[in-house]
Amino acid sequence: MTPISKRIGVLGAGQLGRMLAIAGYPLAQKFGFYGTSDDEPSALLGHMHKQSDDVDSLVNLVEFTDVITYESENTSIEQVREIAKTTPVYPAEKSLYMSQHRGREKGLFDQLEIPCAPYRIVDSLDSLELAVTEIGLPAILKTTTEGYDGKGQFVLKEESQIKQAWSEIGNRELVLEGFINFQRELSIVAVRNANNEHVYYPLVQNVHHEGILRYTIAPAREVSAEIQQQAEGYMQSLLDELDHVGVLTLELFETVDGLVANEMAPRVHNSGHWTIEGAYTSQFENHVRAITGLPLGDTSVRQPLAAMINIIGETGPVEKVLTMPNAFLHLYDKEERPGRKLGHINVLAVDEDSLYKDIQALSEFLPKA
Ligand code: AMP
After folding, report:
1. Which residues, 6 or more positions from 366, have their beta carbon under 8 angstroms from its beta carbon?
2. Is 263 touching ligand 1 by the criterion CB < 6 Å?
3. For residue 262, how far is its CA from the centre of ligand 1 (angstroms)?
4. CA of 58 relative to ligand 1 center, distance in Å
5. Which CATH class is domain 184-363?
6. How far is the CA of 182 from the centre of ligand 1 (A)?
7. 117 lines ligand 1 (CB under 6 A)
8. Domain limits, the chain
9. Phi and psi dihedrals of 41, rounded to 5?
10. Is 179 in the pocket of ligand 1 (CB under 6 A)?
């Protein structure tokens, strides 16, 4: 084994684990996955420990590894706490605990003076009605846990919708958030290692359709140095407060009054996939470096502009991508299914004109609207 080689265990075996492994192999890292089936995107990229096999699968994975990481903020806290008794888990429990509950997350933003939407936690129709009078309408009602890709959300425009909203996603703890009149959705990916090194990628712009990220422009256009610095400042406070090790992502709204935090993820993120070819060190390699105690890599862009286009639902005419010199295809080896993320295309460009020309050429991969 080379001196820097570690055995990394990943809880989950989806595309994020797959891309972590692809980034980790050149650094002689070894991977094991805790997943559900041999058809998952990571299954052939390391040793697969199946949850269904027997109760010892997780124990076997932990015994195999030097360090454990995870793919999702919905990873069980209890599991992580148990594993951490014998093996380091990065990002550690606090990052996971804060990120898996919208109320705790917003409490943390408040504590660190990171602006976010006004909010109230509600757990009954009565408390929802009261929250609406306090926050005002329009507002967005969200489940406090387990929401993703816009699921578990209800946009409240009128008071007459309150009962319907409660019966559709309620009967559980929810958060009512004031509606932010944003100009764009941005995100920032940052990385910290245990030696307290921090690195930041540039702010990117994210465009969603039906709650799912469709494409990212990196770096986001017309972002002033002050705004980038402000975002990095928020990330630094979060990374330090959480004692975070690994990648942390923050989704933001850009408004006329500045940046407003939406939510964070203690993991590599879809809005950071452009970094595979677009930055000197990808988010995946930097996550691997961070959790294995290696120095972090340069986050600068390789070309002035990049775009990441998600391939959703149907694989589509991907052969075309292979004929484009500055486009890069990443497929996750998943079955087609409506709304499912099957892969992405990264495009690098020297200027805005050529970027938009390439995006136009790939318009079959974008929603019609
Ligand atoms: P989320 O799951 O919190 O990322 O929300 C999904 C999408 O809903 C976001 O990407 C925004 O487009 C929209 N959204 C969420 N929260 C708000 C808000 N407070 N104000 C306006 N739009 C929002």
Report:
1. 214, 215, 309, 359
2. yes
3. 7
4. 35
5. alpha beta
6. 10
7. yes
8. 7-89, 118-178, 184-363
9. -55, -30
10. yes
Q: Burial, 218: exposed, middle or buried (Cβ in 10 Å; 0-12, 13-18, 19+)?
A: buried
Q: Tell me, using a 6 A CB cutoff, whether residue 242 lines ligand 1.
A: no
Q: Does any ligand 1 atom lie closer than 6 A to the CB of residue 356?
A: no
Topology of domain 7-89, per CATH? Answer: Rossmann fold (3.40.50)
- Say how many Å lie between the CA of residue 251 and the centre of ligand 1: 9
Same fold: 7-89 with 184-363: no
Which protein residue has the closest C-alpha to ligand 1 atom 5? Answer: 150
If we measure between CA atoms, which residue out of 208, 199, 188 comes closest to residue 261?
Answer: 188
Give CATH for domain 118-178.
Answer: 3.30.1490.20
| Distance between CA atoms of residues 362 and 354, nearest Å | 12
CA distance 366 to 348: 17
* 369 residues of the chain, pLDDT tens digit each: 788 999 999 999 999 999 999 999 999 999 999 999 999 999 999 999 998 766 689 999 999 999 999 999 999 999 999 999 999 999 999 999 999 999 999 999 999 999 999 999 999 999 999 999 999 999 999 999 987 666 789 999 999 999 999 999 988 999 999 999 999 999 999 999 999 999 999 999 999 998 899 999 999 999 999 999 999 999 999 999 999 999 999 999 999 999 999 999 999 999 999 999 999 999 999 999 999 999 999 999 999 999 999 999 999 999 999 999 999 999 999 999 999 999 999 999 999 999 999 999 999 999 876
Chain position carrying tokens 């996939």: 273
